[in-house]
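Protein fold
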Amino acid sequence: MLRTLFTTSIIAFTLFGCTSTPVKTTQKPREPVIALALGGGGAKGFAHIGVIKVLESHGIKPKIVTGTSAGSFVGSIYASGKTPYQLQQIALQLKESDLRDLTVSRQGFLVGQKLQNYVNSEVNNTPIQQFPIRFAAVATRLDNGQKTEFIKGNAGQAVRASCSIPNVFIPATIANVQYVDGGLTSPIPVKTAKSMGADIVIAVDISARPTAGSNGMFGLLDQTINIMGQQSINEELKNATVVIQPKVGSFGIMDLTVANKSILEGEKAAQLKIKSIEQAIQNFKNSPAALQPAPRAKF
């Protein structure tokens, strides 16, 4: 009888006695959701391609891309699946005739249809919501001045709206609403990237700071847009993790011949920020946020 009780006690201890010791589990930190926020600046936007080339060469691939004006042009084609080197070829082969559709109108002298068609051709007519990288093009509603983010639908149409510089392009009409350049409300769409669920936002600022001596109609136009958007630029950049500022201020916003120079400036500026970006990624992995689910997108 005693032997039976002893045996039973041993079995019970073996089965239940160890439950008082907690089992330690190690949770692996997740990778951060990295976003690339590409600002506007006309032909200076080719610098975005140089930035993308350097980021990818270091294994840094964004899961979210947001773009305003020129940033939406480059960003949409990149988010659709093109490689950095394909982007470079597109830039170097791009001609004014690919985008120019002149008209006579009080609202502008470019229609924008050719720009829309060009983008749709480069993304193979893929709607935004089917891009392999989440994308948003930022534009401004003409009727109330509010920012609008296009995250689905016709990519070329969204980019056309985002690029519709007032008095240059005729406002783009989508669902009976007219839109103009996104730079009027969000010159560098960092806040949009955060709203889409980014942990880390790399902002690319290609705007030229207001300076004296801007010559010609397009030089004056460039300066006017920069002056109007300066406060918005500062507000957006406060929310960025890392800011890359290629030295393209002297390049004309309508000069497609600066493509190669702009790309090189983008590469140089991005290379200077690689250590900061890698440190930001490491800091995230060491933070409590890395043990939490990825942020939920607000739209």
